[in-house]
Amino acid sequence: MVGTALLFRANYEVSASTESLRNRSKEHYQLGVRALRLELESTYLSPWVKIAGLVELMNYEYNAGYLSAYYHHLDQAAALVRAVMGNEAIDFTNLSGEQTFDIRCIAWYDILSSMALARPTLLDYKTDTQELSRLSRWDKGVDSDHGIEWIVGCPDPLIVLVARVSALRHAHISPEEKLALGTEIEQLARNTQFRPLRSTNPRFRIARLAMQEVCRHAAILYVYHAIFKSDSSHPTVRDSVKTIIKLASILKPGFNPDCFIPVPYFISPRKMSYVAKDKDYDATGAPVSTKLHKIRITLTSSNVTNLEKFSRDLVNRAKDKDLRVKGPVRLPTKVLRITTRKTPCGEGSKTWDRYELKIHKRLIDLHSSSEIVKQITSISLEPGVEVEVTIASN
Prior knowledge:
This protein has helices at 2-12, 18-41, 47-64, 67-85, 101-117, 132-137, 149-152, 156-169, 175-191, 202-226, 235-248, 262-267, 304-320, 370-376; strands spanning 293-301, 324-330, 334-341, 352-368, 386-391. By secondary structure, it is an alpha+beta fold. It has two domains: 2-204, no CATH class; 288-344 and 351-391, Alpha-Beta Plaits (2-Layer Sandwich), CATH 3.30.70.600. Strands 1, 2, 3, 4 and 5 form a five-stranded antiparallel β-sheet that branches. It starts with a helix and ends with a strand.
C-alpha cells in the first residue's frame, strides 16, 4: 500500500523528487513480492489472507504497468478464490460485507482482463438479467458494503453485463443466436437506470452521472466489438465514442471520478478513428493532426549536465519516431555576473562578493506533427531545464 501511494504521488507530482519517489515505490513493491512469496508458501495462513496480499500487489502492478506479473498473480488469486468459494458462480447481488472486499476486487480484475486478453473469465459469474434491478437500487456511493462501483467507478449492473458479454464471446453457439443475445445485452445496457449519488455537491453529482454514462457507452462498444465485430464506421460505434469523449471532457483532471476514466478509454481506442471529420483536414487533404510542421525546441538550463542528458533523451525519442531531427545545436553560453558588497547595508565595507551564473541553451529542430511532439516531450524534465516549443506558421 505504501508503494502504491508513493507511485501515485510520483505520477502526479512533477518535481525534482519524482524519480526518488518512483525508486522508493519500487523498493516497497520488491519487499511486497518477497513477503507474498512467503505467504503463498505458508501452510498456516488462510486463503483469505493470501488473497488480500495478492490484491494489494496486483493494485500496484496494474498502476505501474507490470502486466506480466499482474496476470500471473491474477491466475494465482483466481485459484484461491475458487478454493474459498467453491465452484459456484459469483453473484454480485449477494456479494457483500467487509470479508468479500478482496473477492470483489479480484472479480473486477478478472472481468477487465477478459476484455484485454480476449479470453474467458477465470471465474464464473451469475449474470441473470432479472437481478440487475437489485444492483441498481443500491446507493453505492455511500455504501461500501455492496458491489465494486465505489472502488472502480463502473456501475455494478454494467460490470455484470460486461461479464456476460465475455462469456457470450466464447460461447459455442450459432452466430445467429450470439447476435440475438448480443442485441439483448445492448438493450439492457441502454435501459439500465443508475441511482444518483446522494451528495450535497451538485458538481460532483453531475460528474458521477457523466462517469456512469461513459461506462454505459463503453459497455455498448464492447458488445459491438466482441459480438457484432463492428468497425469504427458503424453509426452506433461512432455515436458512443463521440459521447464518451464529450462526457469525459467535463471531468476535472486528477480528481474523482476522472481517475476512473482509463478503463472506458481502454475499451474504445480502436474505435476513435471516426473523430477525424471534414473540418479536421486542411486544403491539401492531409489530416490536421498528422500534418508536418517545422518545430523548434529551445532548452535552457544553468546545469549543463542535466541539459545534455535531456537533449540526448529528446533526440533519441524523436529518432525512435523516425522524425527528421537536427541538433542539438549548442548556442554560446551566456554569463551573468553580479557584484555586491558583503555587508547587508552596503556601508562601511570595501569587500565585495561576485556571483556568476552561466546560462546554457540547446536548439533542436524537428519536422513532425504537433501530436507527436507532445508525445516525445512528455518525458520527465530534468531539474532546472526549461523547455520552449515553437511551431513555425505556414
